[in-house]
Amino acid sequence: MKKAYSIFHLNISFSSLAEDQKEIVIKNCYEPLIDMIAKNDYKVSIEITGYTVEQIQIFNPNLIKKINECIKCEKIELVFSGFEQLIYQLTPKKIIDLNIKLGKDIFKKSFGFIPKIFWANEQCFTSDMIKTLSEAGFESIIIEKENLKKKLDMESNEPIVIEDHNGHSLNVVWNSSYYFQLFQRIIHGEYSLDKANNIYSNLGSEDLPLCLYGSDAEVFNYRPKRFHEEADLNDKNEWVKIEQLYKIIENNDIQTCFITEILKLVKKKRIVSSSEIDFLDSPVYVKKQKKYNLSRWALTGRNDIDINTRANRLVGNIDFDSEINYESKKNLVALFSSDIRTHIEEKRWNNFIDKLLELEQKFVTEIPCNKEENLNFKKINKDYFEFINQNYIFQAEPRKGLAIKKLEFKNNPIKIGKLEFGHFKDIDYLADYYSGNYLIETNEIPRYSDLSSSSCEVSDTDKCLRLKSETTLINHQIVKQYLLSKSSPELTINYDFSNLPRQHGFIRACYLTFSNFDDLDNFFISYPVDQNDTVKLAIPELDFNHGMAISKKISSRTFVPAKLGVFSVHSKNNSLEISWDACKAAIYPMAELTRIGQKNLFRMFFSLGESDETFKIGGMYKNLEIKIRSEK
To answer: pTM score, two decimals?
Structure first.
């Protein structure tokens, strides 16, 4: 018989829910789900956050008893995700560990055990999760299939095993964006039950075992009216329709089962190495289409960069080995909730800011201000500037806003700089490609790059040579500075965007053009995720551009999740380390690769802000300091 499994995701923290609506969601969504399972012979998997369990205990403690009864009757299988819904790739390791511990404590108290299956929140997956989760005692993870299968050239829905470079492994059970959205369309009335019957009666072998559903429980029997296109509820009980759909599934000889049963049925699972999926074009795998990417929790929202920066700084100021009370632990974890960073309801946003301020006052010492040195700057009255010492060669062009023409470190083959007009013969790429410049495209500033003449000055000190370029855009002053170290192989680039208000659009800085990319062997990117683990991203065969807009609303596609504020580019035994302080600016690097004839254009740059449907105007952009250092 054909097998199908379902995972209902219960998260009472979802972004558009007002605090006074929690009891309604429990009544309209959670209670009928459990009642439906209890009175039928379905086997259903339920993933529920620890915080949601706590809220159910407050509003309807009897529901937890019903869940436990269904577990004993083998009708419900629990799946774990943690205390809050976090984006692993954006969250400090200490908070990830704390989130898991808090969730485990609640599960142990409420259900008497801790599940071995982990739900990847928002279906965001990177291979470094394998080590963390396996060391935390988890054996399997649920992630979306559609985007990963493009890399793995895979049709089967059977579970696989993914191994990381450290030898850790997890079973992977597939969720399906196609099938969970199909399920929602049927229940919301876009597709008829007759059409559903036709679809489920014609499943092919590649569809099996079938992930019938793997998404939110709160989309049924409740509408927060977040979007105009939300389906009307029309006073209908959608759980009755879901029950009818399960009958259709059964009538087509499809048996509902638990995920653990699927894992046992597939004796010989395909083993996939993390090197097969770790590529720079897809540094993070997320559910659904490209518009649903990591930027929505890091670079957009009401001011994701600001709250992420402050949350990072807060974590950096806390001694986790000392006594932190239970409420403070929960509040710390809640600071990194993904739901705060999207369509957060107004009162909840204000409460979040109040809690953030309260924690900052409790744990963060006053941030020291870097006093501006009293430097003697002199105007640069030439079209070309060069600095050469025992560590590197640096060249910049003042008539192009001090754009970097050449940055070459001694005994390091990786070169940053300029690709001259004519380097690419293709008419579409007849241009100069510099480094060090920034690009702004917002409602207020239609499109501006600092590759133009500006006020450029130089100051010479004992420790470094400092170059400065100033530009004024619509009464907003922007300052860029280079600090050329005289003693070490290091260049520091400062950008002051603090006078620039956040607007719809994007702002990207520190473009780095790798001028000899075609000559480099074994080129790859790496970034650390904790003190003991590093992710390596290979260069793919196909072109890509993280910063390419998806639509007028959505300005980018993904980025490299270097949450610790450092990544490296490598060629053979040489590397350049590029770093910034994520406690001062939680920005993220992007990359692009374009193959033009027999040559390649490879660049990296940093995003200080993007746009999508979650973006709201408010706040200012961050200042940015990037260090580029030669490493052996």
So the answer is: 0.95
